[in-house]
Structures are given as C-alpha cells and as structure tokens.
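User: quick one, sequence for these tokens?
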C-alpha cells in the first residue's frame, strides 16, 4: 500500500509543479485520458473562482450531485488544485465553509495560490490523507471527491472516514472511476496504472458493498462514460456515486 501511495504522490506532485510553471492542465494524455476529465464544468464557472479553464482535473463534476446550500460545510477528498473546494465555498456562502484535504505539498501550494486569486475566505486546505481525515467526527454536511477514491489502496478505510466526518443525514456525492470488466492481475499491480486512475478501480457491486458496510444508505451509482483501454485487458468507466448517512438513532428510554 505504501508503494501505491508513494507513486500517486509523486505523480501528482509532478502535475502540480507543471501547473505552477506553465498553467497547463493536469488532465492530460497521461491522466484519466478519455475518461471525461473536467466534463461538467463551464468555462464561466471555473473563471468565477479565478482559475483557468485548463486547471480542472477529474472524471466528472461532483457539484452536479452535491446540491449545496448556504451555510453548509463541505469536504473535498483529494482536493488537488482546489477547483471543487472553491466552487463549493461560493455555493455555501454566506455562513458555510469548504475544506479540502490533500497529501501532496505541491498541490496544496497550488490550491492555496488559487484561493488567493479567488478572494474566497471561507475555504481551508488541509494536509492529510483521505484514509485519515484531519477533521472531527460529524464535522461536515457533504463529502465530495473527483476521481480520487480509486487511487486509494484501502477504499473501505476512506469510506469509513467519510462516514465518520459526516453529520447525520449528511450527503456523499462523488465522481470516480469504476471497473466494468475486471482488469487483469498484471494490470492491477502496475503502479503507473494506479496513479493513472485505472488499476485501483473496483466494480460497482464492490463499491456499493463498501459504502453500505461503512454505514451509508440510499447508495446510487450512475455510469456516465465507458472507457476501453489500449493494451490493458478490462473496461473502466467514470461514474457518479451518491449515498447518505442515516439520521442519528435515538436510544430507547
């Protein structure tokens, strides 16, 4: 697991440095190619938080699922350059707050620079992993993420943490990659395919089971775009994933 995390960290540190140096997109031919990276965002929406339209990275737009409201608190798992955090911060104002957690120093630096450009004060970028989120229990109303959970070797740990930090009746609204046809054992061992949003994909049934095991209810997974892989056995897809944390159970008198 440490090898996978190190590979992912190195890959996205390099992407962050490239973004900082050239303002180039992090979504290029080496990252989630042909999976719909950045789809669902308008240029005006991205510009509204002071970012370049080339700065998006992901396999969808979790903003389309989250139904954010003024006054809510949002957490983005694997916040990267900060786009979804800053868009969330705008939507939950006034009175709300958006957090992003990322393990890569270089990405955090890019995100904080983007926050300065945006002028948004109601956002905070935290260093940490999505397996050990640096927030208290029941701290947020909504958890979002964009093409990140598939990068984690222990997805059950990530989903348990998401459940922990959500308040009762909190919402889970994620864009991620899923496996439609199982990848070969060889592909699953390749670190480059892990960092490329491919090898870490799991089936819709496994994703659903992991969410329910973590405590989530009303799980819904909608496939949005299939991708067949050159030279790799199997099929993956981008998907929108929704779930809900149940209301707190009141103890019987």
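Assistant:
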């Amino acid at each position: 697991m440490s090898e996978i995390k190190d590979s992912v960290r190195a890959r996205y540190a390099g992407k962050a440095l490239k973004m900082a140096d050239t303002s180039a997109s992090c979504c290029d031919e080496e990252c989630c190619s042909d999976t719909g990276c950045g789809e669902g965002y308008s240029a005006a929406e991205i510009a509204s938080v002071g970012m370049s339209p080339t700065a998006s990275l992901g396999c969808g737009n979790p903003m389309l699922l989250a139904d954010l409201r003024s006054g809510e608190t949002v957490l983005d798992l694997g916040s990267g350059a900060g786009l979804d955090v800053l868009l969330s911060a705008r939507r939950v104002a006034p009175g709300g707050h958006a957090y992003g957690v990322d393990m890569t120093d270089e990405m955090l630096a890019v995100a904080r620079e983007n926050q300065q450009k945006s002028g948004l004060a109601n956002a905070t970028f935290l260093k940490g992993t999505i397996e050990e989120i640096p927030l208290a229990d029941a701290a947020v109303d909504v958890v979002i993420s964009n093409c990140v959970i598939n990068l984690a070797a222990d997805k059950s740990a990530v989903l348990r943490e998401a459940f922990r930090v959500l308040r009762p009746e909190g919402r889970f609204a994620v864009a991620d990659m899923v496996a439609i046809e199982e990848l070969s054992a060889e592909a699953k061992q390749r670190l480059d395919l892990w960092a490329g949003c491919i090898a870490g994909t799991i089936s819709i049934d496994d994703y659903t089971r992991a969410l329910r095991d973590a405590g989530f209810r009303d799980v819904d997974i909608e496939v949005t775009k299939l991708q067949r892989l050159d030279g790799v056995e199997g099929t993956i897809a981008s998907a929108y994933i929704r779930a809900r944390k149940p209301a707190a159970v009141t103890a019987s008198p």
